Amino acid sequence: MNIQKPILELFQTKQPNRQKVPWWMMRQAGRYLPEYRELRKEAGSFLDLVYNPQMACEVTMQPIRRYGMDAAILFSDILVIPHALGQNVSFVAGEGPKLSSFDFSKLGFKTFDQTLSPIYETVSNVRSALSHEGFNHTAHFGFAGAPWTVACYMIEGGGSKTFEKTKIMAYGRPQEFNDLMDLLIESTTTYLLGQIKAGAEVVQLFDSWAGLLDEDAFRKFVIHPTKKIVKTLKEQYPDIPVIGFPRGAGNLYLPYVQETGIDGVGIDPSVPTKWAARLLQPLCVVQGNLDPVRLLCGGDDLALAAEKIINDLKDGAFIFNLGHGVIKETDPKNIDFLKSLLYP
Q1: What is the C-alpha separation between 167 and 139, in angstroms, rounded?
Q2: Are 69 and 28 in contact (CB under 8 A)?
Q3: Which residues pair with 92 in a beta bridge?
Q4: Does 278 qualify as catalytic in the annotation?
Q5: Mind listing the pLDDT tens digit for each residue in 278-335?
Q6: Contact (CB, 8 A) for 170 and 217
Q7: Phi and psi (nearest 5°) for 108?
Q8: Which of 54, 82, 155, 342 is a Cys-bridge partner for 87, taking CB atoms 3.0 to 4.6 Å apart?
Q9: How far apart are CA 204 and CA 243, in angstroms?
Q10: Is 40 among the catalytic positions?
Q11: Within 13 Å of residue 320, how many CA atoms lie on the same side as its CB?
């Protein structure tokens, strides 16, 4: 492990680097950047961009060249897993993802490796680009959607406020839902192992809809799958850090950290930072948790919010990040301002 990379050093030592707060931002590569929008026009569909190793590498590198974050997060999407398993996936402008009707009998690994091989190539390309362009301090992050969240999209056929269809299957047809979760645990693990083999130095599991569940369901559908994935990853790559992000988990963040085996946890804006410092930081690296709307607004409010997060979490292992992804209308100048707050 290259301890000259601030984020990797945190995972190795669990001690804060008080000279520099490591930082990156969820969705840091994407729609708020004019250079991304220009490239997006050339690519065709969103998935055409995701599966183009040269273009996806370029998108991954764009914010690194602008801002010099301490992590380059792979440009991809959590829905490549259902796509690779055989479910049709498309992205409709202004509407988000659309997935074909859920049919478990049509899912499998027949085209899995073939579909995802361009993403592994992107990972390898980014690793080379970071080295060749002089960003030797920058860690390379891979990621995947966690099984519960991916299942939500697969069953609903897209986004939802409540994901009632998914809950109905989970609670009313448990064997069918458990079979799907087993498939997603296996496929997600395989996907992340492929990213690590291609050069990812840290991987993150995004469980964006974890907060929809009560405690019993959270343990069954969030903690248990994450624990199984982490166990297998660690058996093969014990030194690769794994970050979990169970957005909206509330007090259940604590058992999530205690029971899954993760090395770091992303916290959403609702989590009190002093609570996280007291209960989570002694156990793992904490990442977060600026409200993306504060970044969108900028100015004094952004400065005060960032200062509080840093002050509350600076005495433990901490990566500055957002509590969710960059909003597409965010002015890139606000990120320059945020960087000036982190490195005055």
Answers
A1: 37
A2: yes
A3: 96
A4: no
A5: 999 999 999 999 999 999 999 999 999 999 999 999 999 999 999 999 999 999 999 9
A6: yes
A7: 175, -175
A8: 82
A9: 5
A10: yes
A11: 25
What is the three-class DSSP state of 85? helix
The answer to whether the CB of 306 falls within 8 A of the CB of 338 is yes
Return the structure tokens found at 127. Answer: 């690793």
153-212: pLDDT as tens digits: 999 999 988 999 999 999 999 999 999 999 999 999 999 999 999 999 999 999 999 999
pTM above 0.90, yes or no: yes
- Asked whether the beta carbons of 62 and 88 are under 8 A apart, the reply is no
Tokens of 108: 């499998």
Q: How high is the pLDDT of residue 29? A: 95
- Has 153 been annotated as catalytic? yes
Q: Which of 66, 67, 77, 127 is catalytic?
A: 77
Average pLDDT over all residues of the chain: 95
Say whether domain 6-342 belongs to CATH 3.30.70.100: no
Q: Residue 92 pLDDT > 90, yes or no?
A: no
User: From the CB of residue 317, how many other CB atoms can be counted at a distance below 10 Å?
Assistant: 26
27 is catalytic: yes
Sequence spans of domains, the chain: 6-342
Q: Is 70 a catalytic residue?
A: no
Task: Note the pLDDT of residue 1.
Answer: 43
* CA neighbor of 190 nearest in space, from 220, 246, 152, 229: 229
Of 32, 40, 253, 268, the catalytic one is: 40
